[in-house]
Amino acid sequence: PPSPLQPPGLPLAPCRSFSNNKIQVELDESSGVATMKFKSPPVNSLSLEFLTEFSISLEKLENNRACRGVIITSALPKIFSSGLDITEMCGKSMEHYAEFWRAVQELWLRLYGSSMVTVAAVNGSSPAGGCLVALSCDYRIMAENPKFSIGLNESQLGIVAPFWFKDTFVNVVGHRIAERSLQLGSLHPAPEAHRLGLVDELVPEEKLMEKAAAVMAQWLALPDHARQLTKAMMRKAVLDRLVAHREEDIKNFITFISKESIQKSLRMYMEMLKKKK
Amino acid sequence: PPSPLQPPGLPLAPCRSFSNNKIQVELDESSGVATMKFKSPPVNSLSLEFLTEFSISLEKLENNRACRGVIITSALPKIFSSGLDITEMCGKSMEHYAEFWRAVQELWLRLYGSSMVTVAAVNGSSPAGGCLVALSCDYRIMAENPKFSIGLNESQLGIVAPFWFKDTFVNVVGHRIAERSLQLGSLHPAPEAHRLGLVDELVPEEKLMEKAAAVMAQWLALPDHARQLTKAMMRKAVLDRLVAHREEDIKNFITFISKESIQKSLRMYMEMLKKKK
Amino acid sequence: PPSPLQPPGLPLAPCRSFSNNKIQVELDESSGVATMKFKSPPVNSLSLEFLTEFSISLEKLENNRACRGVIITSALPKIFSSGLDITEMCGKSMEHYAEFWRAVQELWLRLYGSSMVTVAAVNGSSPAGGCLVALSCDYRIMAENPKFSIGLNESQLGIVAPFWFKDTFVNVVGHRIAERSLQLGSLHPAPEAHRLGLVDELVPEEKLMEKAAAVMAQWLALPDHARQLTKAMMRKAVLDRLVAHREEDIKNFITFISKESIQKSLRMYMEMLKKKK
C-alpha cells in the first residue's frame, strides 16, 4: 500500500546522475531510488578519497527529498569492494591515520544511520570494510556465485576489527557466529554467507539488479516516517556507542596501526598481494 | 519428575471459572492450569476495557496459589487478537491516550513478567498488539493454517512499535529478523513465522489445545521456584527498561499519536477496514 | 597462512605432560597444542579439588609461551563432566560454600577469558557445569551419539543457573532458546544440541580427537595477537559483569544454597542418583 504520509513520486521525472571520480550515482526521481556504483579499479579499495566521496554522495542523497532509497553495487567485475585501502594505513603519519580513520567512522555513521532504505547488491567479493558496507545496509542480496566471498577477515591480516564493526556484525548474524567468524577472519563463500544470515538472499548474478529493484520497491511501499523511526530505534544503541567513543576509537586505531609489528605485518600482506597479480 | 518444592496438585478439585465481558477464564485446580479465552467480537481488539479485564484476570490468577500456568487463546474463529483498538487512539483526549497507553504497559508488564507458565495457543491471525501478547508468553503454538499470520505490522499503519515491543521481539527472533520485520511491518503466515522462530511450533488447528495442554504439563513438571527465578533473570533487563522509562514512554506516545499526520493516517486505515467488510 | 606475529613452532620439540589427581595434561610443543583430559571417576564432578586443579592447569598453560591452544575432553567413557559436585553444596559450612563458589567463578573467568584457542571435544554427556565448560570454549565438537546429552539443567534440581552461566549460554544459542532451555532445565541429545547451535559440529566418536586437532590447526593458523584481541572484545562485556559483581554473586549463592528447602531438594536428588546406581 502507498504511504499515507508521503507525497506520491513524480511520474516521468528525469533521471539525474552525478559522478565523481570513484562512485557513479544515478537517481531515478520517478521511483525515488538512487543507484551507487563503485568504480575505482582495480578493487574498489576504500581509500580516503573514496570514503570522502562516498560520504558526500550519501549526504547529497539524504538531503534530496526526491530520494528515498539507495542500491549500492559495484561497476567492476567480481569485486564489490576489497575494504579499507591498506596503503592508507602503512608508512603514513599519525595525522594521516587520524584523518583516514575519521573518514571510515564518518562513512559508517552515515550509512548505518541513513534514513533512506539501503540495499546492498553484492555482485562480487566483499572482504573486511567491503563487508562492513554491506552489513550496514538494510538488506543484502548477493550473486550466488560460490567464488564470491564475504566476511570481516581483518584477523587474517594481523589486525582487529573495531568494536563498531563487531557490533554491526553481531546485529546481523548473532554473537556465536560473529565470534567465530571474526576470530578466524573467515571469508564466507556466497552460499555459506546466506546460510549464516550474513546475506539475506542469493540470486543469479544477471538477476541481481532486477531483484534489488524489486526489494527496494517492497521497502518503499511503507510510510517513510514510520520506517525511519523504526530503523533509528533498532540501530540507535550501536550508533550512539561509536559517537560516544569516537576520539578514543581514533586514538586506539593510531596506537595500534603505528606499532612496528603491525606495520610489518601489513607490508608483508601487501607484498603477498603484489605477487598474486 | 515432580517438583520437590511444590505441593502435589489436588486431585479431583472442581473447575472454577469466571467470565467478564471480554475474556473467559477457566481454572482447572487439579492441574493448576487456567485457560483464558478472548471473546470480544468481532476481532478481540485490545480496547481499554479489554486490557483492563486482561490485567485483572492475570492478577487474580497470579495471586491464586492453585494456579501455576495459563493457556491464552481465542474463542473467536480465525482471529487470535487484532491488536490495540485503533478507536482508542483516534480523536480522543490527551488524558484518554495516557490512560490507554498506561493500560497497554500494565498488561505487558504483568504478562511478560508473569511468574506463571504462559503458553499462547494462537488459533488465528495475530497482528500488532496481538502478536505482542503471543511474544510475551513462554511458548507459542500456532495453528498451521497459512492463512493465519502474525507480526508487528505497526509501520504499515504509519505508526511505530514502542521500544519494549521491539525488545520483546528481539528477544524472540534476534536483531536482524526483528529489524527487517519491524521496518516492513511484516505479517508472517504461520509457516514463515515458524521458520523465523516467531512461533515455536505449528500444529493442525484441531490439535492446538491438546498440544498446549501437553506443553504446559511439560513446563509444570519443573519446580516452580527455580523456573520462576530463571524466567525473572531472563526477562529482567527488558522489563526494568520500561519500568524506568514508563512516564516518558507515555509522553512519547501522546505526542506521537496526537500529531495531525498520524491521526489522518489512522483515520484512513479505519476507513479502509470498514470498506473491507 | 602462518602468523607474521608469532614465532614458528619448534619442530620435533618433546611432548611435556603433567598430571595431577584429576586432570591429565599433555602439551605437544611442536604444535603448541595441549590436551586436557578429565579423569575423575565416576563422572568428572567439578569438586573443589577438581576446579582448583583445572584453574591451575589452565594458568600454567596460559603462562607457557609454547602453548597456544587447548583441547578439553574426558578420559572416562560416556561422560564429559557431570557438572558441579553436589556434595560440595550440601550440608557444608557457609565458609565452604563461599570457597567453592569462588572456585567455580575462578575457573569460568580463566576459561571464558583464556587467550588460548579452546576446543571442547565433548565425548559424553555434559549436564550443568559440564555444559558450562563446553560453552566457555571457542568451539564445541560433540560425539554424534544421541545417548549423550548436554544442557544447563539446573532448574530440574530446583536450583538456578547464575547470571553468568546464562550470559554465556545466550552468547552461544541466543535469547529465545536460552530462555526456554534454562526454564525447562533441558538436556539436549547431541543431534538436538547441534540443531540449536549449542554444539558447533557432530562427528563419530572415534573421529572426535582427530577432528578437534584439525579444527585447532585451523584456528592456530591465525595470528595469535589479532585473534586474542578479537576474542577479548567479544567476551569482555560478559566477563566484566561477573568481575564487577563477584562478591555479591557469592553472597547470593550462599543465601540460596543454604536455604532448607534447597538443601532438602539437593538431598533428594542425591538419593535418587544413588538409587540409580
Automatic annotation (TrEMBL), chains A, B, C:
<dbReference type="InterPro" id="IPR001753">
    <property type="entry name" value="Enoyl-CoA_hydra/iso"/>
</dbReference>
<comment type="subunit">
    <text>Homotrimer.</text>
</comment>
<dbReference type="InterPro" id="IPR018376">
    <property type="entry name" value="Enoyl-CoA_hyd/isom_CS"/>
</dbReference>
<keyword id="KW-0809">Transit peptide</keyword>
<protein>
    <recommendedName>
        <fullName>Enoyl-CoA delta isomerase 1, mitochondrial</fullName>
        <ecNumber>5.3.3.8</ecNumber>
    </recommendedName>
</protein>
<dbReference type="InterPro" id="IPR029045">
    <property type="entry name" value="ClpP/crotonase-like_dom_sf"/>
</dbReference>
<dbReference type="GO" id="GO:0005759">
    <property type="term" value="C:mitochondrial matrix"/>
</dbReference>
<keyword id="KW-0413">Isomerase</keyword>
<dbReference type="Pfam" id="PF00378">
    <property type="entry name" value="ECH_1"/>
</dbReference>
<keyword id="KW-0007">Acetylation</keyword>
<dbReference type="GO" id="GO:0004165">
    <property type="term" value="F:delta(3)-delta(2)-enoyl-CoA isomerase activity"/>
</dbReference>
<comment type="similarity">
    <text>Belongs to the enoyl-CoA hydratase/isomerase family.</text>
</comment>
<keyword id="KW-0276">Fatty acid metabolism</keyword>
<comment type="pathway">
    <text>Lipid metabolism; fatty acid beta-oxidation.</text>
</comment>
<comment type="function">
    <text>Key enzyme of fatty acid beta-oxidation. Able to isomerize both 3-cis (3Z) and 3-trans (3E) double bonds into the 2-trans (2E) form in a range of enoyl-CoA species, with a preference for (3Z)-enoyl-CoAs over (3E)-enoyl-CoAs. The catalytic efficiency of this enzyme is not affected by the fatty acyl chain length.</text>
</comment>
<keyword id="KW-0443">Lipid metabolism</keyword>
<keyword id="KW-0496">Mitochondrion</keyword>
<dbReference type="GO" id="GO:0006635">
    <property type="term" value="P:fatty acid beta-oxidation"/>
</dbReference>
